[in-house]
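RETRY 2/3 - previous attempt timed out on the joint model. Re-submitting the same 666-residue input unchanged.
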Amino acid sequence: MPIRVVLADDHPLTRAGISAYLAQESSVELVGEAVDGESAWKLIEEKKPDVALLDIRMPGEDGVSVARRVKESSLPVAVIMLTSYDAQQYVLASLRAGARGFILKTATPEEISRAIGTVARGGFYLDSEVASSVGDKEYAPEALSAREREVLILASKGFSSKEVAKQLFISERTVQTHLASIYDKLGSKNKTEALLLALKYGVVTLEELIE
Amino acid sequence: MRRHLLTIISLAILLPAFAVLFVSGVSLMQHERAMKAVARSYVQEMADNVASRLVDVESRRWGRDYPSIEVRNFRIFTWGPSVPGWVAVINSQGRILFSSPGVDKLAEIWQSGIPLGRAVEIKDKQGSLYTVAVYPVSGGERLVVAAVAWENLLGPLARIGRVWAILVAFMAISILIALLALWKWFLMPIRGLVGEIDTLHWGKDLPRPSDPRAALEIGSLREVLYKLARTAVERTSLQNRYVSDIVRAQEGEKSRIARELHDGTIQNVTAMIQQVRLSRMDTADRVKHLALAEETAHVVVRDLREMCDDLSPPWIDLGLSQAMTELADRLARHYSITITMDVDDNLDLTNDEILAFFRIFQEGVSNAVRHGKATAIHGEIVLKEDRSVVFEFRDNGAGFDPHLDYESLRVAGHRGLANMLERMMLAGGRLEIFSKLGEGTSVRCTLPPKDAESA
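RETRY 2/3 succeeded.
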């Protein structure tokens, strides 16, 4: 049974391009297209697809807030964000909104179908171009300690060092020491990159971050 | 010397004034004392003289009463004393036995407690001063009383003395008042003003507009400084507004370009990449995908050209006539209206001036279409006889009330007119707008003659 997909993008040509990609793929069935956030949400509610490909920038309601509605509605729909920009903050915002995948519009047809397949199986997919812009492919990270994992997960959820310290009953200074150690182990320069690297290397799972 | 001018002036007034006051006071006292001495010695001598002559008469007679004839024949009782004054002989009951003319006054000034044998000063009820001496004769049964009225004896001298005292006191008081006023209404306000201006944040704070304690001149000075400070404040706020306007305009422009690039160009190029990939994959529709990619490439080029035109059209380098005609054609196409443009061929304008006309025309046409719903615009650029250059364009739109305050339009966010005015000012010219509701709008830009400008 093919994976049922809806596509939302306000730009007709890129929408046409991606739908043409999907048409080539026998394992994927495109069940609907939308041109803005509002109609995308209606389409998702109506078709209950397995995967929704949502453009981040759309007129009216943007893709991130549609993803949030999907997450809040508890519909079993895996959201992949489509974007022209590879900004790491977009990735983070998308993940927080419940998206399970993040791909650039310039991704190859193979990558798009790989992403669809991965998220449909319950996995997490980060665009290879975005992923390669963070970290080294061959890098084998040192394992994070249990406490470090906790700190990273809380910090990735958007809590400040102070709030993380309060939740874990440790000092703010200790939180910062943990973060520095995490950055060092993953080879990242900041929190967002650390999160992306941790996801990429499988140090943490998306479920842990979203929960 | 100049630094302490006010102190010096104060001292220059005070020191001589007090010297004069002191000397006048001392001499007044001496004068008074001298007058007193003269009057005393005079009445004493008069009384003494009469008394000794009475004793002489008494020694020749043994009766208790003086022979009136003889005593009455004393020249002093007949003719009066040689200087103003009177002499009288009274008995112990106070009855006047003999007297010189004018003695009636004696009763008025007589009072108990006048000591015997020496001269004293007494005052009558009107306050006139007299010097009186009383000498006893015949073992105290009779008294010789001699008196002078200061008024009569010293007359004008006494009066001048009194007037002089009043004058001196008046002078002292007025000098003190003048100095006090100088201090309070001049020196203190000046100090206050200097202190206030000294610590003033120019362009931010204002001094007090008036000082009720200050003299008129200081008040005017304060008023002038207040106006100056207010101008500085206004200028600062104007400058801030302009700077924030410029920053906002720049940011708006940048984000507009970014948006156009993102929503148009990037999407289109992405689509092209997709179509090229599809053409590789999909053998059946290869030609269709390639054609779509090519078509999209044309759209991208057209979009980019339009953006270039918006930013700074390369063809502006062609010169005034070509640039303005090209602009007119493009604007006409863009807004689907009629635009005609006549440009004098003999004009030689700098690039800045061409750009000013260019932007003003862009803005003007945009205003005419958006606000005035104009459908036809005619522009012409001519060289006037005085060698000034005039660019005028008229539209057939709805017009507007040109009396609208340009500053309030600007503040309300309508930068169009303000931009046009500023452009023209930057190019060294002036801009006038003529409009009437229902009769269209005419914009006239005038560049002054070149030679006059360089002269």
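The mean pLDDT of chain B is 83. Closing ticket.
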